[in-house]
Amino acid sequence: MTMAVTTANLPQQVQSGVVILELWAPWCGPCKIMSPIMAALETELPLRVLTMNIDDDKSVAEEFGIQSIPAMIVYRDGKPYEKIVGAYSKAKLKAHLAQTLGSDYAK
User: Fold this and answer.
1) Considering only the top CATH level, what class is 3-85?
2) pLDDT tens digits, residue range 44-53?
3) pLDDT in tens, 4-55
4) Backbone angles phi, psi at 50, to 5 degrees
5) β-bridge mates for residue 18, sequence order
6) Which residues are catalytic, by number?
């Protein structure tokens, strides 16, 4: 189940494993498309999905130079690993994330 985070609690939420921070805004149409896709991928792959409304908290978007949403920051064991910007099909995003997770999930 995706969880909303803020700058204050983000560091503790990304400490271990693969965590995807989904940056979104209520007015963003593509974000509304990506939200259920991310929720589904969280149940299909060994990762957690966190969400952050950039209208409420712009600091992470600014830190990573995000100028377009939806955007995702992939964390591995507390460290930013990759930035993904744009809306993608579930199949394409799942295949990409499976590669990030390793060959056991690239199916």
Assistant:
1) alpha beta
2) 999 999 999 9
3) 999 999 999 999 999 999 999 999 999 999 999 999 999 999 999 999 999 9
4) -115, 150
5) 76
6) 28, 31
